[in-house]
Design brief:
Elements (H helix, E strand, L loop, with lengths): L14 E5 L3 H12 L3 E5 L5 H8 L4 E3 L13 E4 L4 H14 L2 E4 L12 E5 L2 E5 L5 H19 L22 E6 L10 H9 L2 E4 L5 H5 L6 E4 L7 H17 L3 E6 L9 H10 L4 E4 L4 H8 L13 E5 L13 H5 L4 E5 L5 H10 L7 E6 L7 E6 L3 H8 L5 E5 L9
Parallel strand pairs: 1-2, 1-4, 2-3, 4-5, 8-11, 8-12, 9-10, 9-11, 13-14
Antiparallel strand pairs: 6-7, 14-17, 15-16, 15-17
Helix pairs in contact: 7-8
The structure holds S-adenosyl-L-homocysteine.
Length: about 400
């Protein structure tokens, strides 16, 4: 058999017909949609996942068996049915119209093969296994591991020995505000991780997991934003200045922030500073500690029949301070879960205010220090006793206080 000829099909706006609505179609359709194809699905039945695409208007569905005229105007057809006779009929109609036909049931009868694929940002690696899909997947897995080892900040020992891969040219002079997640270095997003490995300059927060910084390439400039002197507002101006200056000199700057950049992270101010200076900015959300840290301690922020709301609030300003923007009296009236960030210093005043305005003192409460890290400590208490218990246990920031019946909903 002669060798296949590899191609990258540009399917945006082009009709692709998928015949069949079962497991194979369910796996193939997302990549077609991702490529922007105008997908027509022909099948009497659909899996729930395919039906969801139909309901969302992402593809057109003909609820019947295939008819040759379905291929009129198509550029490609994917046959995802087991029935050989039906599949052969599609192949024949495709051949007549000179349309490439992928066959899940019979590779020998197909006029095109789908490769095993791994995607790394803009790079797509596609592997054909010479007629053996298992071999293709094995090679694909090996390439994926190589690329992860090469570009990942958490690469395993020995990854340096991997032959260098040419990094693609990327647009210079920009900033990405990246959420690093709550503490466990594996809880950064895939996109955040990739951008981090592409950065020329990394400006990191105090709460950013150290392991993420450990394996930055030596030539990357690392700015520790927590070490910038001056008070908080001068320091913020200084950080904004660093972001803008470095980007203007053509660098790709990653501003790495604990949790999510927009949850008490001053990400908005940095975005505005860059926008004012005409520097392009991307924002990559992160897993916020407000949800992940309670979860890591076994507390779901919502739970069926227990809490149908959760409120995230900053406790860094004392409740009775004129500078407080939080209406603690109103929060005391909520039934749902209250998650307090930066609340340890004012915990006695916060819990007393909530009780004074009607939240029962026996409401369960938990405090989680350094959640999702190896230093995680959890204390279970009640709203009435939590401040004294935290003091007695010597818990320190960063910590999250979670108040409500969800504490204990999964057992203790
Ligand atoms: N942008 C961050 C929050 C920044 S405010 C996010 O989305 O998670 C800083 C506060 O977050 C800390 O004072 C603490 O209350 C909380 N916090 C962040 N990481 C934490 C962790 N690993 N464990 C406990 N609390 C954490």
């Amino acid at each position: 058999m002669s060798n296949p000829y590899p191609l990258g099909l540009r399917l945006a706006g082009r009709r692709v017909v998928v015949v069949g609505g079962g497991a194979v179609a369910t796996r193939r359709v997302p990549a077609l949609l991702d490529a922007g194809a105008d997908v027509l699905l022909v099948s009497p039945e659909l899996t729930p996942a395919l039906r969801a695409h139909v309901d969302a208007g992402r593809l057109r569905w003909e609820a019947r068996r295939f008819a040759p005229a379905d291929l009129d105007g198509a550029w490609l057809v994917q046959v995802a049915v087991d029935d050989r006779v039906a599949a052969a009929a599609v192949s024949a109609a495709a051949a007549e119209r000179r349309i490439f036909c992928v066959r899940a049931d019979d590779r020998a009868a197909a006029t095109a093969w789908t490769p095993a694929v791994t995607r790394h940002g803009p790079v797509t690696v596609a592997v054909l296994g010479g007629g053996d899909p298992r071999r293709a997947m094995t090679v694909r897995d090996a390439v994926r591991a190589l690329l992860n080892a090469r570009t990942g900040p958490l690469s395993t020992p020995g990854a340096e020995e991997v032959a260098p891969v040419d990094t693609p040219r990327r647009p210079a002079g920009r900033v990405a505000l990246v959420g690093a997640g709550p503490g466990d270095p594996e809880l950064i997003t895939v996109k955040g991780w990739r951008l981090l490995t592409e950065a020329d300059v990394v400006v990191a927060d105090r709460l950013v997991p150290g392991l993420l910084l450990d394996e930055l390439r030596p030539e990357v400039e690392l700015v520790d934003a927590s070490k910038i002197p001056y008070g908080p507002s001068r320091a913020q101006e200084e950080i904004n200045r660093i972001l803008v200056d470095r980007a203007r000199s053509g660098k790709f700057v990653v501003r790495l922030k604990g949790g999510d950049p927009y949850v008490f992270g001053r990400g908005g101010e940095e975005l505005l500073a860059c926008a004012e200076a005409g520097v392009p900015v991307t924002v990559v959300p992160g897993v916020t500690s407000a949800i992940a840290v309670p979860a890591a301690a076994g507390v779901p922020v919502t739970h069926r029949a227990v809490a149908h709301e959760f409120t995230v609030v900053s406790g860094h300003v004392a409740p009775d301070s004129p500078a407080s923007l939080v209406r603690w009296e109103a929060l005391a009236g909520l039934r749902g879960t209250l998650v307090v960030l930066m609340g340890l210093k004012n915990l006695a005043a916060i819990s007393a205010t909530l009780v004074a305005h009607g939240r029962p003192a026996e409401t369960p409460a938990a405090v989680v220090q350094e959640g999702t890290t190896s230093g995680q400590r959890t204390l279970r208490s009640t709203l009435g006793a939590v401040a004294a218990d935290v003091a007695a246990a010597g818990l320190r920031p960063p910590a999250i206080v979670v108040i409500g019946d969800v504490v204990g909903a999964l057992g203790s």
